[in-house]
Structures are given as structure tokens and as C-alpha cells.
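Q: Could you write out the predicted structure for this multi-component system? I'm mainly interested in how the pieces pack against one another.
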Amino acid sequence: MMKILHNAQAGSLESSDALITISPAEKGAGVHLDLNSIVQEQFGEQIRSIVQEVLARKGIEDVRISIQDRGALDYSLRARVETALSRASTEV
Amino acid sequence: MTFEKNRIRRSLLFVPGNNPGMIQSCSIFGADTIILDIEDSVAVNQKDAARCMVSHAIRELDFGGAEIAVRINAPSSEEGIKDIEVLKEALPNVLIVPKVECSGDIRDLEKRLSSLNVGIIPILETPKGVLHGEEIAGCSPRLVALSFGAEDYATSMGMKRTREGRELFTARSLVVMQAKSFALCALDTVFADVNDEDGLIGDSQEAISLGFEGKFAISPRQVDVINGFFTPKPEELEKARKILQTYRIGVERGLGAIALNGQMIDAPVVQRAERILSMARTAGLLGGGE
């Protein structure tokens, strides 16, 4: 199981990408997702679902996630969330 | 994924592994091979992000009929070791391995790959690598081609690069000979100035004349030019057909030698004609049965 130790980011604000910011949350706080997307109306639910899928796979229950999406496809969203989580869980 | 040893590789397009916009659109440019790059086009502090992006792209995207390759970091480096571990779960058709200098570099990589079904294309881009090309070309059944990298080679040699690339003649010729002596495809270096189409044309002509069968591209706009050069022209195809037809007639009549328009048709001429037909077949220029 992955443990979020500190703030971390992955991705960019380029078109077709997303900038993901991860912050630790207290035990029991749950997942707080702040989504800002250019396609929020059409794909907001799908983006949230992908984030939840990645978090479940990594066994993370308490975390704060901010997503600034610029039209990232599912594969790149998964990659960016995974990278940000990995960076946030690495001892520095 | 699996690898095909003899597939056509006219153009091999490098795509930065940390750029999702380029990755998801790269298959529309017609490159025979797409190289998702985790090496030189990725900043040192973004290697982890590129590895993850490339891994998801391989598993989730449809690249059409293109061969998928990944240029990893030097396999013995810390980043290269991580690249290989991640790619075991998202295997491309081929690994492009930079700065290979001896057969031991490939053998060490093979130990880590274990039984995974993946091809290897070494890039010879140092004087030592070019001099050891023969030893490298014969060291593994996973090798599908030998390739030349001019920029690092020129730097190592202290060469001044020119637009015409005359300074690369010896190294390019050696790499082609080394590849061909082991029946491998020979792939030529990038042409670095993406705004100089005439330069790319001249460089591709030189590559063809030396015996290369494909060329790396660093921009989608180079792909059409390269594909055009490495695909047989209609007149070349017609000439190859006539040569083979004449040759068959000679064989049927029991003639030791036969001429076509004054040109002696001997074994090397026949082999070149067969190769042209083979390339045309793979490029989809021939009808069924030919």
C-alpha cells in the first residue's frame, strides 16, 4: 500500500495533458478531488472515475488531489496520477 | 507484442515519451516504426513521468499498423534499469538501445530481458561502437537491425558536422557492411535540421546509395520524404520485374548469362531486383500473387 508523505506534482498545462497536484490528508479524511477541466461537462465523471480507479489500485484512501486538465486522454491521465502519487510517496 | 525480424522499416519516428499530445497523434504520419523515447528527448527530472506515460500508451493506445519501439536509457545506467523493469509489464515490439559499444552491452541487456519476446536495435554512435559493429551484429537473435547515430558519434570524434555529412562516410559504410554481413537491416541516423527539406533529401539519397534501408526521423514532417526515398519508384519496380523475367527466361533456356538492354543479368543484379520487389511488396505496392 502506498503512503502519501508530502506534496508532489506531475504533468503540465500543455494541451492534451493534465497537471496533477497531490497533498497528504489526515487518516479518515477520505479523497478530496478538486477538478478543473476544459471538458468538465462532458468528461468530468469519467475523469473522477479514472482517479478513483488509480487510487484504489494503489490502496490510497486519504489524499487531496487537484487536477488541472487540458484535455488529457484516459491513458495520460492514469499516467500523470500514478507519477504524482509515486513522487508524493517517495522519501526525499 | 512480438517482433518481426524482416519487417520494413523505412521511417522510424522519434516521439518524446513525456508528451501525451504527440504520443496520441503520432500514428497518423505514416512512420513504419514509432519510437517512444525515454532517453535524450526527456529531461532528467522527468524520466519517471515518461516511463509511466510510455507504459500506459503501449497498453492503452492503438498505433495502427506501426511497429512500436522504445528508446531506453543506457541499459547499465540507473534510469535504463528502471526503464527495463517498467517495460516488462508493457512490452513494445522493439527496444532501441543507445550507445552500444560491444556485444557485452547487448548480452547484459538480454539477461535482464530473460525470455521476453522483444527485438533489439542497437545504435552505434561512438567510435568504439562503430568499430565493434560486426561483433555486435552477430551477438543475438533478438537483433532486427543495426543503426547509426551521427550526432553523438561526431561529438566523440571531435568532428565538425556539415550539411552534406561527408565526414560520416566511413562510419556509415561500416555500419551498413556490419549489418548486411549478418542479414540485418541497416538504419541511418537522423537529419537534425527539421526545417531543411533539401538537406534531408540529399541525406536520404546518400543513405540509399550506401545501402541503408531506413532512416530515423525527429519530426513528423520528415516521414513522407523518408518513406518516399526508401520505397521503390515505379520505374525501379518495372526494371526489377524485367530483370527477374529475363533472368527466368535465361534459366529456362539453360543460359549461363543473359543480357537486358545491354546489361548483363548476373546474381547480384538479380538479388537487387528481388530486394526491390520485396520492399515494394511490404510497402503494399504489389498486387496479390506477385
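A: Regarding packing and overall arrangement: The mean pLDDT of chain B is 94.
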